[in-house]
Amino acid sequence: MIRTTIAVEARKALYSTVLTTTTALLTLGITALAVVMALGARAGNEQVVAQLGPMGELEGWPLLMGIVFQIAAAAVLLGFGTALSWIFGREFMDGTISGLFALPASLQAIAFAKLVVFLLWSALIALLVTAAILVAGLALGLGFPGLFDLAALSRLFVLVIGSGLLAIPAAWAATLGRGLLPGIAVSVILVASAQFAVVAGSGAWYPIAAPTFWAMDPAAVTGWQLGLVPAVGLVFTLATVWTWRGLQLDR
């Protein structure tokens, strides 16, 4: 039954304009912004160099990857949170939630299937973004990446995957709030709180910010700190599934 439920949710996602648009925006948007900023830094644009800080002194792949890590950290988390808000919140907004009670699959199975499909989609986004940055780097004339640069590209892939896990609280919020806006609001709060943690100097211990710290400097984050990321995803997966289990028609 769960396989059938996942297949149904996957089919709905496949024909979703929202997810298709989000895929294009994240992949092309992150790549375009990174390329523009890299070109600006290469040309010696003072505003771009000042915005990049110490990173502005880098060249080649290290410069491009450093820019990508900073852009992707916020953009992917917000994009994933918005997508999850739609995946879960639209059932309430469109009034289709009542029809789910009549299906053979349980509500918790449907919620779990939605999360499985989302995580598969986030893995696809990770692959597309990483591939797009690789192509962009080659197009900029940076040459084929060396071992250090390939390691950075692999960390970008993991960073996007981790952002998918960290966005799951948006699904829970969309369920509790019975709509899109609560989930989107939580996504914005997560991004803002990560920025605050960085300024406060506690980013490595804050799960929302830890993946970015690790991507930029693996030695700056311990395994225990990075392990909090899947823990957040697991906790809010259970919370979301449990909340769906208790849904009632009059709510």
Automatic annotation (TrEMBL):
<feature type="transmembrane region" description="Helical">
    <location>
        <begin position="61"/>
        <end position="88"/>
    </location>
</feature>
<feature type="transmembrane region" description="Helical">
    <location>
        <begin position="226"/>
        <end position="244"/>
    </location>
</feature>
<feature type="transmembrane region" description="Helical">
    <location>
        <begin position="12"/>
        <end position="41"/>
    </location>
</feature>
<feature type="transmembrane region" description="Helical">
    <location>
        <begin position="184"/>
        <end position="206"/>
    </location>
</feature>
<keyword id="KW-0812">Transmembrane</keyword>
<feature type="transmembrane region" description="Helical">
    <location>
        <begin position="152"/>
        <end position="172"/>
    </location>
</feature>
<feature type="transmembrane region" description="Helical">
    <location>
        <begin position="109"/>
        <end position="140"/>
    </location>
</feature>
<keyword id="KW-1133">Transmembrane helix</keyword>
<protein>
    <submittedName>
        <fullName>ABC transporter permease</fullName>
    </submittedName>
</protein>
<keyword id="KW-0472">Membrane</keyword>
<dbReference type="Pfam" id="PF12730">
    <property type="entry name" value="ABC2_membrane_4"/>
</dbReference>
